[in-house]
Amino acid sequence: MPRALNNAGDEATPVCGQCRKSGRYCARLLKSFRFSAYSYQSGTGSLSKEAAEKRQFPSPENPRDALQSPDVAWYFHNYIAEPAKWYDLGDASRLFATWVPELALDEPLLFSAIVALSAEHVSQTTKSKPAKAVAEFYHGHCVHRLIQLDEKTELLRNGVALAAVCLLRSYEILNEDIDPNRHLQGAYSLASCEDSIAASPPGSLLAAGFWNYLREDITFSLFESCPLKMDVTMAAAPSLTGDQDQLHSMTLILGQVINKAFGYQISEPEWERLVSMVQTWLDKLPSNVKPFSRSQSVTPSAVGELPCFWFLQDFHASARQYALIALTILAAFAPLNQLSMLPSVCDDAELITADVSKGDLLETYAIEICGIAFTTNIPSVLVNSFGPIAYCGKFIRSEATRQEVIRRLSACKRSVGWPVERLISSLKDSWTAELESPSFSGEAGPGFGS
């Protein structure tokens, strides 16, 4: 099992001597930071002491005192009103919007993470330079405190440290100058322990942090077509007593599909087992979790229109997207004569027939995933959709539909602040590659053990 933090190592890079000797994952969070009360230096930039003092950023050492600053109070409120929603996807208790801010009133680590993320969100959605400076200042304080944590601290056991790292993960995605995978690697040692779920109540902050970490890990894996950083087969499946458990259970299934397929370990029996898991999930899906209204067709339109899917809850939409992206990956890795084994996700018509082409099937899945994202148009669903769109979008062949997806993605920048330009560029590159190599569309597919 990975260590909680890499404090006892000899600081060798990229793997410390202690981890190399024991064969464990070396979860080095960051290179060292230096900062005073009003300045810090990092490997990604710096905020001078003079500039910080001029702006009079309150120290996060006492969050309640810092919140007496109207500017800081506003950033704190903005977190509750906007970014917190991303983390409460599938959480009926809304812990990241309620319990996390309450804990942050007396916890400098969590407070710094909240203000840093919120200010970066404001910076990206409004192009505010003062907000960028605030974000960098509190980000530096947060990272410094993370590095100082030891393995016995209560912050590791109560989920505060994991919650802070999840917030920093989003900060670094929004801040394109920082490696977006850096804190995801650091969070691995906090989230991959079996007590993240098994020994924690379902409604605990530690469990909520785990599900957020796992979704963030899935997003990165879908962008990069690489395995997750943890073996989700060891995670305990939820009991499916509530609607939100449908999202959690499909998240675990998707994690297994990703690890097997992107790790090129998917044999034919393994492929059939994963297909069966998705089929079972679809068969047990309660009717209220399915869309209550939908377009009649999900086939490409000459004018680029995307199909509409309406759901009762945001996490219902995300659960269906995860099922679709799992099927997309399984279809991409399936031999042509096995496509008919894939379950249909349509209630009113059979989507898959014996003579269906792989390209048509992949495009249909992709269009539905995009349609769900932009019909729902809720920040929590949009943020969770970028990974699936990054992977499946390359299978869209209709030029009109491609342009509509780009238009819809561009509109997301103002509301959520994500670097959608990078996603759009990646999709355009893949479509250009398809023109140069028609087989890129997935018609052939990688097949088993490729």
Question: What this model shows, in words?
Answer:
The chain is mainly alpha-helical. It folds into two domains: 218 residues, no CATH class; 198 residues, no CATH class. The chain is built from 19 helices and five strands. The strands form two sheets. The chain has a three-stranded antiparallel β-sheet. Strand 2 and strand 3 form a beta hairpin.
Could you list some keywords that capture this structure?
transcription cis-regulatory region binding, single chain, 3-stranded antiparallel beta sheet, 450 residues, globular, two-stranded antiparallel ribbon
Topology, please?
Blueprint: H1 17-22, E1 34-36, E2 39-42, E3 45-47, H2 49-55, H3 63-66, H4 70-81, H5 84-87, H6 99-104, H7 108-126, H8 129-148, H9 154-157, H10 160-174, H11 182-191, H12 205-224, H13 244-262, H14 268-283, E4 293-294, E5 309-310, H15 314-332, H16 358-376, H17 379-392, H18 399-416, H19 420-436
Antiparallel strand pairs: 1-2, 2-3, 4-5
Helix pairs in contact: 4-7, 7-8, 7-10, 7-18, 10-11, 10-12, 11-12, 12-13, 12-17, 13-14, 13-15, 14-15, 15-16, 15-17, 16-17
